[in-house]
Amino acid sequence: MGNKSNSKFKEFLLKKNIIFSAKRYFIDAMSAMANGLFASLLVGTILSTLGTQFNIQILADIGNFAKGVAGPAMAASIAYALSSPPLVLFSMLAVGAMANSLGGAGGPLAVFFAAILASEIGKLVSKETKIDILVTPLVTIGIGALFSFTLAPAIGTAASSFGKLIMWATELHPFFMGILVSVIVGMVLTLPISSAAICAALGLTGLAGGAAVAGCSAQMIGFAIMSYKENKASGLVSQGLGTSMLQMGNIVKNPLIWIPPTLAAAITGPISTCIFKMQMNGEAIASGMGTCGFVGQIGVYSGWVKDIASGAKASVTTFDIVGLILICFILPAVLSTVFCLIMKKMGLIKENDLKLQDI
């Protein structure tokens, strides 16, 4: 009797497209959350920065409106990734707004958990009654509200505290933490996990955010340049301005190809924190974007603008610009290429190990 009940429940879950897996929740959902952040908070930051810099008020206003819907955008993106039906998807707007607001500085992480829970429970009741138009939104928003009011503040505080701990440690030990943050966040960017979402959830800014930008840039520019022979201009653009995640299939075949850009990150990270003292004082999500659409660099620049406006910084200096270019573009390209050539001479990396199949 018990086995039959379990079997029916599994069939019901399958019918509702509810699949409990790490991939669905921690890869698909988190990547979708990053897209939601990108389409709201990040684009809004770019627009508001441009509006402020060029004194175009309408751009600044549009940017501020876009930033204001970050919570709903994240939650809706997660629900979409989980294949939620329309009423559940639309209800996520309210859930995202609540979780992001009540989660405080760690709002993105609160939205992540609230959206997954509310989406999956909303899917359970969807189309199960004759008054679905009332039941589904009520249940979905109700679950989201229950989570947001009871757990979101604690989750937000925990995420924010952990992020502050990383930033404090980086200020205290810029050399070692510069290496650690740069390497870890850079590798996360190349893995099928969203480094942008993680940086946003932890509120990773300051020196640590700068090191994260360095690490992500090292992976993207490193793979783009050292694989130019195999992938030409299309590979250069798709990896250098898109994502180094494209190399994941090749990394599985030969993990050693991951060494050159990772070593580059281990070098550019402490150069960022100790020599140029590059800080990400823009939006935290930009810390995990690297050179993707130059978002990491725009984030650093928007931070400079913010610091100048607050009086924390007098102006953007030549030293700042040179440091940004060296850390994000020149050093990753040179270092990764040199390390790759050495490994090729040693026979550790072979011809076409870096070839992208779809390029």
Question: Can you give me a brief rundown of this structure?
Answer:
The chain is mainly alpha-helical.
Question: Can you tag this structure with a few keywords?
Answer:
mainly alpha; 16 helices; 2 domains; 359 residues
Please characterize this protein's 3D structure.
By secondary structure, the protein is mainly α. The protein is built from 16 helices and no strands. The model has no long low-confidence stretch (mean pLDDT 93).
Rounded Rg: 22 Å
User: Helical region count?
Assistant: 16
Number of strands: 0
Low-confidence stretches: none
Shape: globular
Computed structural class: mainly alpha
Oligomer: single chain
Largest sheet, in brief, is: none
- SSE order, as H and E? HHHHHHHHHHHHHHHH
What is the averaged pLDDT score? 93
- In helices, the fraction of residues equals over 70%
Proportion of residues in β-strands: under 5%
Distance between the termini: 54 Å
Tally of distinct domains: 2
Fold blueprint:
Layout: H1 2-15, H2 22-53, H3 57-68, H4 70-81, H5 86-102, H6 107-125, H7 132-150, H8 152-172, H9 174-190, H10 195-202, H11 206-226, H12 228-242, H13 248-253, H14 259-275, H15 295-310, H16 318-345
Helix pairs in contact: 2-3, 2-4, 2-10, 2-15, 4-5, 4-6, 5-6, 5-7, 6-7, 6-8, 6-10, 8-9, 8-11, 9-11, 9-14, 11-12, 11-14, 11-16, 14-16
